[in-house]
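Q: Given only this backbone (194 positions), what sequence would you predict?
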């Protein structure tokens, strides 16, 4: 069963009856085919990837995003502003980030950093966090631990970017201590989905 990383981390961070509700949502999600039209952030992710992979200036981001339905204008505007602030004056080059599935039991969690960027002599594998609420410390640590565990490369810095707040969180070795907990949660989710 392939579970999106965001859905899996949502499950990991819940407790009590909300954990069961989250598992039920994942079960429904698994029963429906992926529809790009329902992927709220798809255009933003693709615009950022094109911005860097084609070597565009950050001012082009809004143009790459294109015309949006009214309901997305404010959110996408906030993300674009935050992302351009993050870029700032960095001299950035793009590389294709490695991707890998984290497999535990019957669960497969795609670990797909959306962007691979190099600046200042360092290469960053960056997962974009696009929601409006700030990510919790536990969410940041869980995502980065899974990224490092699934893609254990030594020549990249694993990072999570809170896009709207232009804040880059970097992997710390202590985060790997969460892996046994994440594995236990995967076992629990697998049981609830069976």
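A: Predicted residues:
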């Amino acid at each position: 069963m392939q579970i999106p990383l965001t859905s899996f981390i949502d499950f990991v961070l819940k407790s009590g009856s909300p954990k069961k509700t989250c598992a039920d949502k994942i079960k429904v999600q698994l029963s429906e085919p992926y529809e790009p039209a329902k992927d709220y952030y798809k255009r933003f992710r693709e615009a950022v990837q094109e911005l860097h992979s084609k070597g565009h200036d950050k001012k082009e981001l809004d143009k790459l995003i294109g015309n949006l339905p009214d309901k997305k204008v404010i959110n996408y505007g906030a993300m674009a502003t935050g992302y351009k602030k993050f870029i700032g004056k960095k001299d950035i080059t793009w590389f294709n980030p490695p991707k890998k599935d984290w497999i535990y039991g019957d669960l497969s969690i795609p670990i797909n950093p959306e962007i691979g960027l190099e600046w200042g002599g360092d290469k960053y594998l960056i997962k974009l966090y696009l929601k409006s609420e700030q990510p919790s410390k536990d969410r940041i640590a869980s995502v980065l631990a899974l990224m490092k565990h699934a893609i254990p490369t030594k020549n990249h810095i694993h990072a999570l970017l809170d896009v709207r707040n232009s804040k880059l969180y970097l992997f710390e070795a202590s985060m790997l201590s969460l892996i046994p907990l994440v594995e236990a949660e995967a076992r629990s989710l697998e049981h609830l989905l069976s």
